[in-house]
């Protein structure tokens, strides 16, 4: 059964990767770069500072950083443990897939997907009562994850598992932040602003 799932994963990757068109390569290469999203990270910091009082904002910013670090560390640990070769480094695939990047570290799970999903989920949880449009941020991990298949460096299961890990880490960080904000009584006066129970 496991081998069958791996085969389906491989075939789905080949199909999705093969949908790529050369005229869109520059776009997806830009999307897959972490540096492209620096303005988004700055926007997130601005929104946190805008939504919370000074002390609360510092705690939430700490949770924001923790959600990234926890997810990044766990992702690296899983990569080293599973040691799955990236599709771009599989000799049998190199002549049949489009390869736009050539990283050599392990594939499972996708760090791009796990960290972007973790950050987005955490931010949505802490800001959803203040900014109703905040769910739009999920376009970021969606595009980020999709780019990894497009450039030929991740299987679909890498993305799926990465997203799950990201959500789990984000929820843990959210509850940690909620505990400290609640204990220190750092809510804003506006009743729509505090971190509330999920």
TrEMBL record:
SMART domains hit by this protein: acidPPc
InterPro entries the UniProt entry points to: PAP2/HPO, PAP2/HPO_sf
Record EC number: 3.6.1.27
Entry superkingdom: Bacteria
Bilayer-spanning residue ranges: 37-53, 58-78, 105-127, 134-153, 159-177
Signal peptide start and end residues: none
Keywords, comma-separated and alphabetical: Hydrolase, Membrane, Transmembrane, Transmembrane helix
CDD domains recorded: PAP2_like_4 (cd03395)
Sequence ranges assigned to domain Phosphatidic acid phosphatase type 2/haloperoxidase in this UniProt record: 59-174
UniProt name for this protein: Undecaprenyl-diphosphatase
């Amino acid at each position: 059964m496991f081998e069958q799932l791996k085969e389906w994963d491989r075939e789905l990757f080949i199909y999705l990767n093969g949908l790529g068109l050369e005229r869109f390569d520059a776009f997806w290469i830009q999307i897959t770069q972490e540096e492209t999203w620096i303005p988004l990270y700055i926007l997130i910091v601005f929104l946190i500072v805008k939504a919370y009082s000074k002390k609360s904002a510092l705690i939430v910013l700490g949770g924001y950083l923790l959600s990234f670090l926890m997810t990044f560390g766990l992702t690296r640990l899983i990569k080293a443990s599973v040691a799955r070769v990236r599709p771009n480094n599989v000799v049998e695939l190199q002549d049949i897939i489009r390869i736009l990047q050539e990283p050599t570290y392990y594939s499972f799970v996708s760090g791009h997907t796990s960290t972007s999903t973790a950050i987005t989920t955490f931010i949505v949880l802490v800001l959803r009562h203040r900014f109703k449009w905040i769910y739009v941020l999920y376009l970021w991990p969606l595009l980020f994850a999709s780019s990894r298949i497009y450039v030929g460096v991740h299987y679909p299961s890498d993305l799926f598992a990465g997203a799950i890990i990201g959500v789990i880490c984000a929820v843990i960080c959210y509850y940690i932040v909620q505990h400290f904000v609640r204990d220190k009584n750092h809510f804003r006066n506006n009743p729509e602003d505090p971190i509330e129970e999920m």
